[in-house]
């Protein structure tokens, strides 16, 4: 069994695809890590739902200003050219199609691009935040996720079983084993770990992986 | 016209049992802690105002702010997008026990519903939540080949807002990302109560930088050096 990527390595791989001159929203938690691996020389302006464009890294411990936080309630700093705005303007940026990329986590992704990432069903407290707005706003919706659940079940499905966040919205999935684009209602394999055969990868994926073009090796540094 | 009130208690005397109260803030940024705790103190002393519907992005953290209201037992229902936090016990325990209601609203829809409430727009269509449980039972329609969900305005009896500077006419500025929902809530409530770190004379705030115009503000009370919810939590506040 191939050694899967760590979350940091998945974040690194997604970061390599950040377009130059782009506005990007990174979801709270795992997707936030992507900012750390942005390639040198690429200009990316980060948006956060709570009303900041162009925020930067976390301040050193002890220097936090808790009125200057991101959507994950973590302290951030401002880059030159940053701006503040209220929540209606913030989501006008989202729904109005002004963001280039939004990156989210996932419980499940279906081959038609459906995403489930907000509710595990009855008995839990549901929390949606800005996810349902983001999935219908940004031009590209990326998901970063482990390829399977903790107990080894596929997360890339024919159809989501958990409550949906959005319909047909995901454009690319960066997993611990592969990079997969969603095109025409199919999972189109772009890259996979060299140490893993297509059959092995398919066995961990419920929906069919389309591998008609050239499938490249998924290569990431040790992090 | 906005009026300056001499105390938190007097500024809050318009809040009665069963009202809908919008509370500004996103996490700790912009949470009007002094107004909230004056309200909690009044409830503990008099049993009123109770049975409140509270509208905020979150549903309290730790045991201060909105969490203190929930622990005190004065909140019947939360309208929010994200009832999770680093310590969501106050809400979670009561929710799972069926003791507090929850209307879960996607964050951008929550913001726009409040904006619509303040702007006299009874309903609007949004792509958010189409095809999900949240959209069930709501009118849906196609515009230019894409499906949208109808959402209705959201208004409140009172909004509690934290501002940085207010002038006597009610013009407000905010501090950094602490504004978040507050300019929208100030528009959507019948009575907007503001705690400001500083109250200045009209003309002292440059009109170019006013964020909330005074027409949306009714009551102002000065709270110099206000507490910051996140700083309180990290300081171990109970």
Architecture overview:
The complex is a heterodimer of chains A (223) and B (238). The longest helix of chain A is centred in the first third of the chain and has 9 residues. Chain A has a domain of 145 residues: Glutaconate Coenzyme A-transferase (3-Layer(aba) Sandwich). The model of chain A has no long low-confidence stretch (mean pLDDT 96). Chain A has four helices and 14 strands. In chain A, 47% of the residues are buried. Chain A is 13% helix and 27% strand. Chain A is of the alpha/beta class and 223 residues long. In chain A, strands 1, 2, 3, 4, 5, 8, 10, 11, 12, 13 and 14 form an eleven-stranded mixed β-sheet that branches. Chain B is an alpha/beta fold and 238 residues long. Chain B has a single domain, classed as 3-Layer(aba) Sandwich (Glutaconate Coenzyme A-transferase). Helices cover 25% and strands 27% of the residues of chain B. In chain B, strands 1, 2, 3, 4, 5, 9, 10, 11 and 12 form a nine-stranded mixed β-sheet that branches. A three-stranded antiparallel β-sheet of chain B has the order 6-8-7. In chain B, strand 9 and strand 10 form a beta hairpin. The radius of gyration of chain B is 18 Å and the shape is globular.
């Amino acid at each position: 069994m191939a050694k899967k990527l760590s979350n940091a390595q998945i974040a690194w791989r997604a970061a390599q695809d950040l377009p130059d001159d782009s506005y990007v929203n990174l979801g709270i938690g795992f997707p936030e890590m992507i900012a750390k691996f942005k390639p040198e020389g690429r200009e990316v302006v980060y948006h956060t739902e709570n009303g900041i464009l162009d925020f930067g890294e976390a301040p050193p411990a002890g220097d936090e200003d808790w009125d200057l936080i991101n959507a994950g309630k973590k302290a951030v700093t401002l880059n030159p050219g940053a701006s503040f705005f209220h929540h209606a303007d913030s989501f006008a940026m989202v729904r109005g199609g002004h963001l280039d990329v939004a990156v989210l986590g996932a419980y499940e992704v279906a081959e038609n691009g459906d995403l489930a990432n907000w509710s595990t069903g009855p008995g839990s407290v549901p929390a949606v935040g800005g996810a349902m707005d983001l999935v219908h706003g940004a031009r590209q919706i990326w998901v970063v996720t482990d390829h399977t659940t903790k107990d080894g079940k596929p997360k890339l499905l024919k159809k989501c079983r958990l409550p949906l966040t959005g319909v047909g919205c995901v454009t690319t999935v960066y997993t611990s084993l592969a990079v997969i684009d969603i095109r025409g209602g199919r999972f189109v394999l772009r890259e996979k770990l060299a140490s893993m055969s297509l059959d092995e990868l398919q066995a961990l994926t419920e929906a069919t992986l389309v591998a008609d073009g050239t499938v490249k090796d998924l290569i990431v540094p040790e992090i | 016209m906005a009026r300056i009130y001499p105390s938190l208690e007097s500024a809050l005397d318009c809040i009665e049992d069963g009202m809908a109260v919008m509370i500004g803030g996103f996490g700790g940024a912009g949470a009007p802690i002094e107004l909230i705790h004056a309200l909690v103190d009044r409830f503990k002393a008099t049993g009123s105002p109770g049975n409140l519907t509270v509208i905020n992005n979150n549903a309290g953290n730790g045991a201060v702010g909105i969490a203190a209201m929930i622990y005190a037992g004065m909140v019947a229902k939360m309208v929010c997008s994200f009832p999770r936090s680093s310590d969501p016990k106050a809400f979670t325990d009561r929710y799972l026990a069926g003791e507090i209601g929850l209307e879960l609203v996607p964050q951008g829809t929550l913001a726009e519903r409040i904006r619509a409430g303040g702007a006299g727009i009874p309903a609007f269509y949004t792509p958010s939540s189409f095809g999900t449980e949240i959209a069930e039972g709501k009118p849906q329609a196609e515009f230019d080949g894409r499906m949208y969900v109808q959402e209705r305005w959201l208004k409140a009896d009172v909004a509690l807002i934290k501002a940085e500077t207010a002038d006597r006419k009610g013009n407000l500025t905010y501090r950094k990302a602490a504004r978040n929902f507050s300019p929208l809530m100030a528009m959507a409530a019948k009575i907007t109560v503001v705690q400001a770190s500083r109250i200045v004379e009209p003309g002292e705030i440059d009109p170019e930088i006013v964020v909330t115009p005074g027409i949306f503000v009714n009551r102002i009370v000065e709270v110099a050096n206000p507490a910051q919810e996140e700083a309180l939590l990290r300081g171990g506040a109970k």
